[in-house]
Amino acid sequence: MKKINLNFFKKIPSATYVAYLPDFKKEKTQQFVTVVFTFVALTFFALFAINPTLSTIAKLKKELKDDQFVEQQLKQKIANLQSLQNEYGEVEKDLEVVLKAIPENPDAPILVADIQGFAVSENVNLTGTQVFEVEVSKADTPLGYSSFVFSLTAEGSYENLYNFIEKLSRMRRIISFESISLTKTSSDNSNLVLNLKGNSFFKK
């Protein structure tokens, strides 16, 4: 490789170097320098100012998208709750009937009071009622419910006793009949004696 002769550059007068430098007093030179500094400033601004701003914008866009998703989910939940509220309003009036069908507790005195009320309304002479021991086991009852056995004896005409039994079968509280028998009275052939045995259910 050919070596560069450094002595050659030493022989060049310093004025020659100065001649190649731009004259900053000239208008074109000033414009050129202004453009260069402007470009450098813009580059610096892009690197240290615009880039963080773009990152912030991207982050804000992601947060906005997440917020919109959450808002959409909340609106859907509110709509579902409103739908459930409307459905509950439609069945609320029937809840009392449903709850009375199978009460939480035996409530045997309430059952006896209902039976007595039916007897009075149908002109039936209720001569006796009995409630047997309440079963605490749910193994042998429908759907796991507990039950207790009740029995009654009543006297009246065939029509009145028929209406009385009909009311018992249509009462709000669910009961089942184990046995029903009608016999004639010894004193009055127009009246009959009713012997009825049934089951009443409850949840506990």
Find the CATH topology of the largest domain: Alpha-Beta Plaits
Shape: rod-shaped
CATH-derived architecture of the largest domain = 2-Layer Sandwich
CATH H-level homologous superfamily name of the largest domain: Ribosomal protein S6/Translation elongation factor EF1B
Number of E strands: 4
What is the total number of structural domains? 2
Main sheet attributes: strand count, strand direction, barrel closure:
4 strands, antiparallel
Average pLDDT value? 77
Instruction: Please identify the structural class as seen in this structure.
Output: alpha+beta
Q: CATH first level of the largest domain: which class?
A: Alpha Beta
As a percent range, the share of helical residues equals: 40-55%
